[in-house]
Fold:
Amino acid sequence: MAEAVRRGETLLGSLPAKPRRDAAQQRAAADVLMLCNALRTRFLATHAASVYDALTESRRRALRLTELLFTAAETFPGLAPTRAHMAQESKRSQADKDGLEIAQGIFLRAILNDDVAGRHLMTAMLRPTRRAAALRADFARSDRVELETVLLERHGPAAHVTLHNLQCLNAEDDRLVDDLETAIDLVLLDDRIRVGVLRGGVMNHPRYRGRRVFSAGINLAALHSGEISFADFLMRRELACIGKIVWGLTAEQENASGYALPAHKPWAAAVDSFAIGGGMQLLLVFDWVVAASDAYFSLPAAQEGIVPGAANLRLTRFTGSRLARRLILGGQRIRALDREAALVCDEVVAPEEVDAAVERATHALDNPAVVANRHMLNHAEESPEAFRRYLAEFAFIQANRLYDMDVLDKLRRTWSASRRSES
Structure:
């Protein structure tokens, strides 16, 4: 496998960059990449567990996604793109990339589909980040941490996590996922905090200036320019950022009963203006959702051409299959005052009453019995095994969708339309 992939990479390197290839060269590049990925798939079908054990010292090391992928590339040449390959690829727009991340999707599908390796990787992704550990003491002293796109503040037993990726209406990108996971870690690590709250900040975008916005979903401009990472955004978001809201942090020590419970806490969300795409996906893991009466929810994944995270796994238990299909496949919106809104949020109030509703929700969730029961509800509704199997297939499907021509065409049209509107 390594030798065949090396020859393929040499051939690919002899071709012009993707924008300058003629039709024959484009077909040759596509054939080389397809053959290399087929070889990787065959290799991992037999050796995934052994590869993972080699990379993690028989699961004595906990490697996060990016570290795991690059360690695999160094230890098993040809199995995944190297750090140098990905650094070069990151300089290109999405349409000009060769799709090396598909090999990462193939690798992660194989690892997550292996029962032992997959469980170990999921546990590794629930560990606190080094960044959160470095900020922990500062947050304990000041009760406030301001990151580039997220503001964290403690008010008594509640931690308020405010999204403020202001210029793009809290659209999600690599930076926001990193900042949000850091804030979630700090909430879960602080014993003074018993409830987490997520809300969008006040915007300075011309159209929504002075108004709060929850989330505009994935940043399509960043995706078009090649700045959205498969591993550090799409996979990390599900396994770590959202995963920690559902399952909490990996337990480091056993308690008095000899059983190690993860550090997890109840969460409330407040939706102002809209929760689009990834924003609506987030709501599916919260324990209480308050919405302003002028807000709406949507999952325009089919229009964007990609898979809406784990919404395909979770949404049907909230809305039933028919409405879930209309939302995901047809792009239907739900407005907060629609009858269907009761299926995705718990309370709808006038915009000026959201603050009071959030205060009531945090008070209701501040209860040790709530912690125990949400833990059991999450296990009953979505077992870690079901989530792992879903994410294995998601890794492969989403990595491929990022490079399908229909997605690239839609990104180009969206980008062109946004440039026209700005001018």
About this structure: The beta strands are 144-146, 150-155, 158-163, 195-200, 267-271, 274-276, 288-292, 296-298, 333-335, 347-349. The longest strand covers residues 150-155. Residues 198 and 269 are 5 Å apart (CA to CA). The chain has a mean pLDDT of 94.
